Every structure is written in C-alpha cells, then in structure tokens.
C-alpha cells in the first residue's frame, strides 16, 4: 500500500478518534445505509493499520490542520489525494465517478445542524467511502500482481500491503484453487504468438514473463540451491518451488512405494458380510413402491410386439424357416470342395515373388560402362532370346523428354501375368537354429578327473630322437629306444636309468610283453628283432623266462620260413640280456604283441605281400597271413579279447578274423595318411591318428565311418593310445603337444560314446619340425609317458 493511502487512512482515523470522544450520540442520528455499515466495519481494520508510529509522527501537523479547516479546505485535500493516489494506484481513476455519485447522494440526505461535530462527520463521509473503495480495489489486484514470494511475505514494513488477508476462495473453485490464469484447460501453445499467456479474474492480460537464456539458466542452476525442486508453470509462466511434502510424494512414486505415508497395505481387513452370521439384516430399508407395480416400459414393448405379430411383421421360428425354404436357391459350382479344403488353400497361399528392381543399365542415361559396343550388340542380336543376359539393349538419351515409349511394355506385362498364373510356387522353410544348440553339452573337466595334468619326472640320457617307449605290465619299469642306437631301461618312480643296451642301428620300436609272468622286451633294429630279458623286477619271473626259452626243442622236420630266420644270441650277448634274434628280409618298423604274450607281429613296410608277419614265441615260427598286398601297411594291432587282427594302410583300416581267415570290416577314414591306431580295451572302438592332423574315433557297432573327428592338433599326429583301466585316451603330434581326452564308452548300445578334451600337456620342445613322437599310459595309474625329438622322456601325473 502506498504512503498516500496510509496517510489518508491515518487522517480519518485521527479525526474520528478525536471527535468521537466528545459527542458519540451524534453518530446515531446520522442516516446510513447497509453499505455504510459494511464500510464502518472495514474502517476498524484501517484504524488498526494506522497505528504505525513513524506515520503518526510525520502526519501530526497535517491531522491538526484537517480538523480545523472548513469544507473548502476538505475539497482541496480530496483533489490532492485523488491526484496522488492516481500516481501510486493504477486503478483509482475508475472510482472517481463513483465518488461523485456518493457525494451527490450525501448532499441530498444532509442532516440538520446539530453542532460542529455533526457537520464535520457529514463532511468526512465522502472521503471515507472513497478511501474504502480504493483499499478494496487494491486488495483485489494484489494476488495477480504479487509473486508467490510476495504472497507469503509479512504484513509489517513500510513497503508492504495492507494487513487485510485476501480470501482466495472468493474467485477460485475448489478444483482450481491455485489457478490465476482463467483461460481454462487448453494447450498453452495457442498463446505462443501473443505477448500474453492468458487473462486473470478481472479480464486483464497476464503478460508473458521474460525468458532466461542458457547462461542465465546455467547460473540459476549453479546458484539456486532449490533449482532441483523448481518446476515451471505454463499457465502463469512462473517457477514454483515444490515443498518438502510434494518432493517426498514424488520420490515415493519413483521408488515404487505408496504415495501416501499413512496408507497401510497390510492393515487387517474385516469381511463384514461373511465374518459373523447375523440374525438381523444389515439394511432394513423397505422396498420401493415401483417394485410392486408393472413396468410401463415393458408394457409398451409388449404392445409393439403384439402389433407387429398382428401385422405379420414378426413371425414365429417355424414360419420363418418355411419362408427361407421357399426362397430360390442358387447352387455353388464349387460345392464339391469342402470348407476345410478352402481353409487349407487359404492358409497355404504363397505370395508371388516381386519383380527385380531396375538397375543402372535401364536408366535413360546409364554410365558408359553399361553401354554395349558394336560387337556386343551384334552378339546380342545373333543369340537366342533365352540365352541373352538382358531382354533389352541399354540406350542413352540427352534428356528425359526424349525417351520414347517402351515398345516391349505390353509383352513384359503379359509375361508377368503368365508367371503369376502358370508358374508353381514353393515356400522355403528357414530353420532358426541357435548357435548354442549346435554345440554338445559336455561336462566340466574337473568332474572327469583323474587324468594327468602335471609333469612329474623327466628321464634324461638319450642324445637323439626318442622314437618309441613301452611300460612293463607292473608299471614299475619303462623302456625307451632312440636314434642314438641305445635302449634304456628306467625306474618309473625315481627316473633312474637301470640298464643301457647298445644296438647296431637305429631303434625303431620297443614293446614289452603284456604277459606279467614273462619278463621279455622286443626291440626292432633295422632288419632284426631282438628279444631281451632285462633282468628287472621279480627274480622268479626273470628266471622263469629264461627257463621257458631254454626249454624249447627244435622239431625234427622244422619248417623254416625264408622270410624270417630265428637264432639264439651268443654268450656275450646273453650276458647283456639278449636271448633271441629274428632276422627279416627287410627293415622292420613296428612290433605289436598279442594280449596273451605268445604271439607278436611285425611290420615290414617294403615287404610287399609279406609286409605283415606273425611270430609264435613258444614254437619259434613265423608266418605271413596275407598272400596279396592291399596297400602300404602302416601299423598293426591285435584285438584285446577276440581273434581279430587290425591292419592299417594309408587310408583304410581292415579288420580280419584270424579263425575264419576272412575280412570282417573295412573302416573308411577321412585321413590321407594314417600314422597310428589304438584299440579300446573293450574292443568295439578304434582310435586312428593321421599325418593330416585328424584324430578319428570309430565305433564299429555303429558304422564303418568315423563317429567323431577331432582336429585339435596343428601339425601331424605321431601316436595315439588308450588307457587300460580309465576312460582316457591321448594323442601326440609334431606341434609339441600331448592332448588328453576323456572317452567314456557306455554298456548301453543306444548311447554313444562321450568324448571330452580335458587337458593339453606341454613340455617337449620341437626339434627339426618334430615334436612328441610317442606316448603311453601307465597300466594302472592315470599317468602318461611321452617321448620327443628333444631326447627326453617325460612323465605326467
């Protein structure tokens, strides 16, 4: 409220207060209407606000002058105050006309002279009513002109508004208590092109507040601690700070909790109607009268139905069916097709393929490389229409308007119609396969233990390639042969070399007799095969072996084979352990013992049809089981329990029945050159390694083709082997790796073998492109021996 208005209110309050004490009875006789009574009640509020001490000290002199002055002086003050109020309050000009009307009414009802105080009171009434209207107008405009911060400000101070509180419910509904913009619930984008954003309760425009630029917005964001809880009101254009209650309300909604803190979702619920059986009903309200009176609406419906039946518009079901039968019938020429076939045809519809989109060659100005030369044009014209790559010749034009009509358009449309009508269609089913489904579900390697994982012992002594190794049936001793023309016997547990034999050539193969009652080792050196008693282990077994060999008596009519010559070792050689010597006609490559230890076979690669020889130790005789060569023999092996003999050539593995002397099976490998084979202790599975990095598992009960083919070696595979007791097999190659796999064979013929690679053993060094040349499992422990081109033998446990 301005200072002028406060000055006026204090003037009138002082005058009334000073004169009211002298003659209070005069106010009773002054005629006043209902509006004046209301204004008197408002003056009490004005009188309370006029107690400001500072304004009383400043306006004391003016109050005394106002009491002593006459009507002329009062009129001058009225004019001055009106002028001053017009400067401070923008709406005071409107009340000038109303003040003149009030003065006119007061002049007509001027009371009789009852003294000086009565006349003064009558003169002050116009000024009093004028100030009341100004104060009311100011209070009405206050809500729309003040900011939310001004509305909450205190009532004290020189620059504050009047102490009268504004009732916001005088102009707002209960649903829109905080809305000052009366445009309603409309999109505020309609006012984007106007300088205002709506109208207040008095119809005045609400000007659009100035917008902040990005810099001001950034500063506001940095400086204002309540920026995070400030929202923009599009209706009024103001920024409103949310109170703590609203912020907590929003946070509870974001957290997925109940908005109201007082709401208890788990409060006990009482089923009022089914908890207890009550004698009296819950409600005893009597039924309405209309429930006993027939419905008038139903009466009208029934009357309409009766009228339609009488007029023949509504017919019973039987008559309606008769009328339908009397109608003319139209037969479907495709009635022989059932609805099921039609539905099937509808679902089996195949959409026609779309035409090929035009390319660069069909442009009216194609690139030069798409334009044919004269020779190509000549070839195109001479070719048959079905042999032409394109049905047209690309042409070029300067502009699009020079392009003539396409003369083959009708023909192409006709051919397209023929394709749609006559060409059969086929739907190609695409199977959606997940990559994870293609991979077999294998168990974890830690669940398949035990298997060799760590290098335990290194056997040092050889100076060249160690091509072959073998373990005795007890698992205590190990024999190895090398290109340094030596054979060494090792103790497995300690790695100590127990014996060394010098040979007259490169040692190709060593094989310990699988019979634990015999201590005998076969050594292949060039054309000779030596049978050696190393004298290790149990002395009784060693002596029994010598007695067994000495007990042989040569028959009178002995049939000697021209291919193999049996002979006993000289006395000097016997002291070293040599017992027998078998001299072949060609160099030997491999030795394979039978499971009982009486028979063993040798491979002579250059022997032709005599590449395979079988020797009987007890009778000291040899024989050639094949009369004709089936290929270059690589390796041989005996079946562990049946009279089957396996012969591996370069690409095939043949299985022969020794009793029936016939071919039983021929395993078809995918390898180009077989290097080694191994027979499972059960006898139904064969492991084949090749020089082209393939490791094939054959299930002879399943097929003659490989059941699994593994390619985990990067270079040639030199040797493969099975464990006698554990479901393990291993392969060694020129990449210097020994890969151990878990191969579980089930007794159930309906379940195939499970192959899981479990460990890669490293330790050997690649020398001259050669890695691990041989590997062998321990007969009873999950241990693995390996020998390599680096001249070492290693034990992995």
TrEMBL record:
SUPFAM superfamilies to which the protein is assigned, alphabetical: WD40 repeat-like
GO cellular component: nucleoplasm; PeBoW complex; preribosome, large subunit precursor
Classification via Gene3D superfamilies: YVTN repeat-like/Quinoprotein amine dehydrogenase
Gene name linked to the record: LOC110974824
Compositional bias per record (Polar residues), positions renumbered to this chain: 131-147, 154-163
Similarity annotation: Belongs to the WD repeat BOP1/ERB1 family.
Locations listed in the record: Nucleus, Nucleolus; Nucleus, Nucleoplasm
InterPro entries: BOP1/Erb1, BOP1_N_dom, WD40/YVTN_repeat-like_dom_sf, WD40_repeat_CS, WD40_repeat_dom_sf, WD40_rpt
Renumbered residue ranges of the record's region Disordered: 1-177
Protein name: Ribosome biogenesis protein BOP1 homolog
Positions with biased composition (Basic and acidic residues): 10-21
């Amino acid at each position: 409220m301005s200072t002028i208005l406060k000055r006026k209110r204090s003037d009138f309050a002082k005058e009334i207060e000073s004169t009211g004490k002298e003659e209070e009875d005069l106010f009773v006789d002054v005629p006043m209407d209902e509006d004046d009574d209301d204004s008197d009640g408002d003056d009490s509020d004005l009188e309370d606000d006029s107690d400001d001490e500072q304004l009383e000290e400043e306006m004391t002199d003016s109050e005394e002058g106002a009491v002593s002055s006459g009507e002329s002086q009062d009129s001058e003050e009225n004019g001055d105050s009106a002028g001053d109020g017009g400067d401070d309050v923008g709406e005071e000009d409107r009340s000038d006309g109303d003040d003149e009307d009030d003065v006119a009414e007061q002049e007509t009802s001027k009371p009789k002279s009852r003294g000086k105080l009565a006349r003064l009171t009558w003169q002050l009434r116009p000024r009093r009513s004028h100030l009341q209207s100004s104060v009311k107008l100011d209070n009405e405009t206050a809500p729309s002109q003040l900011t939310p911060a001004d509305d909450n400000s205190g009532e004290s101070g020189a620059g504050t508004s009047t102490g009268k509180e504004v009732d916001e419910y005088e102009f707002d509904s209960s649903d829109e208590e905080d809305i000052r913009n009366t445009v309603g619930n409309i999109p505020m984008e309609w006012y984007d092109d106007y300088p205002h954003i709506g109208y207040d309760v008095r119809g005045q425009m609400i000007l659009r507040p100035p917008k902040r630029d990005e810099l001001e917005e950034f500063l506001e964001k940095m400086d204002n601690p309540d920026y995070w809880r400030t929202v923009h009101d599009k209706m009024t254009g103001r920024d409103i700070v949310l109170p703590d209650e609203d912020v907590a309300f929003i946070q509870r909604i974001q957290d997925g909790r109940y908005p109201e803190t007082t709401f208890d979702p788990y409060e006990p619920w009482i089923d009022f109607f089914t908890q207890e059986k009550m004698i009296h009903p819950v409600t005893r309200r009597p039924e309405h009268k209309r429930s006993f009176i027939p419905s008038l609406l139903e009466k009208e419906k029934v009357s309409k139905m009766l009228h339609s039946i009488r007029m023949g518009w509504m017919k019973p079901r039987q008559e309606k069916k008769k009328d339908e039968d009397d109608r003319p019938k139209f037969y479907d020429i495709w009635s022989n097709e059932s609805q099921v076939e039609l539905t099937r045809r509808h679902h089996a519809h195949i959409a026609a393929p779309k035409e090929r989109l035009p390319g660069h060659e069909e442009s009216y100005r194609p690139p030069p490389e798409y334009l044919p030369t004269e020779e190509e044009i000549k070839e195109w014209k001479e070719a048959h229409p079905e042999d032409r790559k394109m049905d047209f010749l690309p042409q070029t034009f300067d502009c699009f308007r020079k392009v003539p009509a396409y003369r083959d358009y009708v023909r192409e449309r006709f051919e397209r119609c023929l394709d749609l009508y006559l060409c059969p269609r086929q739907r190609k089913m695409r199977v959606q396969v997940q990559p994870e489904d293609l991979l077999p579900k294998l168990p974890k390697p830690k669940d398949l233990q035990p298997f060799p994982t760590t290098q335990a012992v290194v056997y040092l002594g050889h100076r060249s390639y160690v091509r072959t190794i073998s373990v005795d049936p007890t698992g205590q001793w190990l024999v190895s042969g090398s290109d340094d023309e030596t054979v060494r016997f090792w103790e497995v547990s300690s790695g100590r070399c127990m014996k060394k034999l010098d040979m007259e050539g490169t040692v190709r193969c060593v094989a310990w007799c699988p019979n634990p009652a015999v201590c005998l080792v076969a050594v292949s050196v060039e054309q000779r095969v030596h049978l050696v008693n190393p004298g290790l282990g149990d002395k009784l077994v060693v002596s029994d072996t010598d007695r067994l060999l000495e007990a042989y008596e040569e028959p009178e009519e002995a049939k000697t084979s021209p291919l193999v010559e049996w002979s006993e070792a000289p006395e000097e050689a016997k002291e070293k352990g040599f017992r027998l010597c078998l001299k072949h006609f060609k160099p030997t490559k491999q030795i394979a013992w039978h499971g009982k230890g009486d028979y063993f076979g040798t491979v002579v690669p250059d022997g032709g049809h005599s590449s395979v020889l079988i020797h009987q130790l007890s009778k000291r005789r040899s024989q050639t089981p094949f009369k004709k060569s089936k290929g270059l023999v690589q390796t041989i092996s005996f079946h562990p329990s049946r009279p089957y003999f396996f012969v591996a050539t370069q690409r095939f593995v043949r299985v022969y029945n020794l009793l029936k002397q016939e071919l039983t099976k021929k395993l078809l490998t995918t390898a180009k050159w077989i290097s080694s084979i191994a027979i499972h202790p059960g006898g139904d599975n064969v492991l084949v390694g090749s020089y082209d990095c393939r490791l094939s598992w054959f299930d002879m009960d399943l097929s003659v083709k490989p059941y699994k083919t593994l390619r985990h070696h990067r270079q040639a595979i030199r040797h493969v082997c099975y464990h006698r007791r554990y479901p393990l097999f291993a392969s060694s190659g020129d990449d210097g790796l020994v890969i151990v796999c878990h191969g579980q064979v089930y007794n159930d013929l309906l379940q195939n073998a499970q192959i899981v690679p479990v460990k890669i053993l490293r330790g050997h060094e690649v020398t001259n492109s050669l890695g691990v040349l041989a590997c062998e499992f321990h007969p009873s422990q999950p241990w693995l021996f390996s020998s390599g081109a680096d001249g070492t033998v290693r034990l992995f446990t």
